[in-house]
Task: structure prediction
Amino acid sequence: MKTTVALLFGGKSVEHEVSVISGIQAYKHMDTDKYDVIPVYITKNNDMYIGEGVGDIASYKDIPALLKKSRRVVMLCDEGNVYLAPYPMKNARKNIPIDVAFPVVHGTNVEDGALQGYLKTVGIPFVGCDVTASAVGMDKYVQKQVLKDNNVPVLDAKLYNTGDYADIDGLVADIEKRFGYPVIVKPVNLGSSVGIGIAHDKIKLVAAIDDAFRYSSKILVEHAISKLREINCSVVGDDVNAEASECEEPFHSSEMLDFHDKYERGGKGSKGSGMANLARKIPADITDEQRSEIRSLAVRAFKALGCNGVARIDFMIDEENGKLYFNEINTIPGSLSFYLWEPLGVPYKELLDRVITLALKRKRENDNLVFTFDTNILSNAGLSGSKGSKR
Result:
């Protein structure tokens, strides 16, 4: 009997369109001998739709027309089973039972634990990181603190919020005192290089701060490495067992790898290929020692952050001193980093099967945990108003 997979993509995120590409890529490569796959498009208003055109990338040239011929659904749990139910709910016989959810989503509101929390509350097993790992993986500052405690090298950084932004002169002065120039400014919880800027002077720093605060209420500032090489590595597994992929070196047209480099460049015929579109060298032109160190650190970071499924870890090499630093983790990477596994003999179909298997393994493990217990506390409870009574 086949497993029914609800493949989710889109959502209220600045990376919405990238998610659509990644999601449909995954849908086209699923093992249909093992899985019945239902593509589920999440609009920018977080409404879910299914239908004949939802799994066709050409349909997204006219999204309003796609939605008119598609069906809006919600997830519904009934007696331990989860369904995609038509909305408004008029006919329960049209409910579609699903076994596992597969979020292929990127960015704030969907990759950061929000969607994962919804799926957990509904009661459907889902592919990828759990709520905590998703949230920590999206928060660049928090993940740095966790990794420091696990001996993964990271650049020192400082977090600033909108209260600091109210005194822009003081904020700039503090950054100049702490880091000097050049510095890199990032929204604390975005991906795809959105809102990230490098500043070599005060004018560019103010502009970078303004831009970063457009996307987040908190920003991260750290020293910008002048002679930078970026090396990426994917990891698949869970916090018990995990393995690393081949390494890649992405190429960029500007001072840093930006959204244009990731999704709008590439070779002939690459348009619409998501992260697979990026100009890169696989395997990266690094020494055997560097490759071994990067792959080892990638697995260590993945486990330390409590990840599950497939992730991509981005590293930085400072060519002035040869030091290696963890940059960030993508808990649901663009194109699911399938291109980093193919050189090791793992086709995309097998990668997708592995992460679904991991999701079902976690479900079995969670089923053995105790989350409730019987108590008579409510039979003795009262609301007498006396502080601390009946607790």
Remarks:
- The two ends are 49 Å apart (CA to CA).
